[in-house]
């Protein structure tokens, strides 16, 4: 589990640095990635790029993992402190999307050393 945890820590570090290519490099080509803003999932690396590019024009999220655990079905779950600010760094008010300051679980499924699926188990479900 240590190698997988280190890989996920690097993903969070690269996400927070807005290094899309650094994250996409460790995602499977057919990745299913949870859309925390609108619900459902986006599919494939380029869809993840588009999702984050859109997200970062609206808000400035920061995610900090504080713990990891493996579930009985093999997923690796990160407990994450999620902070979402406006583009000027101020706390959000009256947002219509699903991103909020809170502690959340992120569930990852890896295949051949790459993230094949990312879910936010406690997020509202939307269309896939």
Model regions low in confidence, pLDDT < 50 over at least 5 residues: 124-128
| Helical amount | 10-25%
Please report which band the strand proportion falls in: under 5%, 5-15%, 15-25%, 25-35%, 35-45% or over 45%. Answer: 35-45%
Widest sheet: strand order?
2-1-6-5-4-3
Mean pLDDT: 88
Gyration radius from CA atoms, angstroms: 14 Å
Main sheet summary: 6 strands, mixed
User: What's the helix count?
Assistant: 3
Q: What distance separates the N and C termini?
A: 29 Å
Question: Structural class per helix/strand content?
Answer: alpha+beta
Shape: globular
**What's the total count of β strands?**
6
Order of helices and strands: HHEEHEEEE
Describe the structure.
Strands 2-1-6-5-4-3 form a six-stranded mixed beta sheet, with helices on one face. The protein has 128 residues and is of the alpha+beta class. It contains three helices and six strands, in the order ααββαββββ. A hairpin with a 6-residue loop joins strand 1 and strand 2. It is 24% helix and 38% strand. The N and C termini lie far apart (29 Å).
Helix-strand layout with pairing:
Layout: H1 2-16, H2 20-24, E1 27-34, E2 41-43, H3 45-55, E3 60-70, E4 76-85, E5 102-111, E6 114-119
Parallel strand pairs: 1-6
Antiparallel strand pairs: 1-2, 3-4, 4-5, 5-6
Relevant terms:
128 residues; alpha+beta; six-stranded mixed sheet; disordered C terminus
């Amino acid at each position: 589990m240590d190698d997988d945890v280190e890989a996920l820590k690097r993903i969070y570090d690269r996400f927070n640095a807005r290094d899309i290519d650094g994250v996409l490099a460790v995602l499977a080509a057919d990745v299913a990635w949870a859309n925390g803003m609108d619900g459902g999932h986006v599919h494939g690396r380029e869809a993840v790029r588009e999702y984050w590019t859109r997200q970062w024009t609206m808000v400035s999220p920061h995610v900090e993992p504080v713990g990891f655990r493996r579930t009985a079905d093999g997923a690796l779950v990160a407990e994450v402190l999620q902070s979402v600010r406006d583009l000027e760094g101020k706390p959000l008010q009256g947002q219509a999307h699903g991103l909020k300051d809170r502690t959340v679980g992120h569930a990852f499924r890896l295949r051949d050393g790459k993230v094949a699926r990312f879910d936010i188990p406690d997020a509202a479900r939307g269309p896939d």
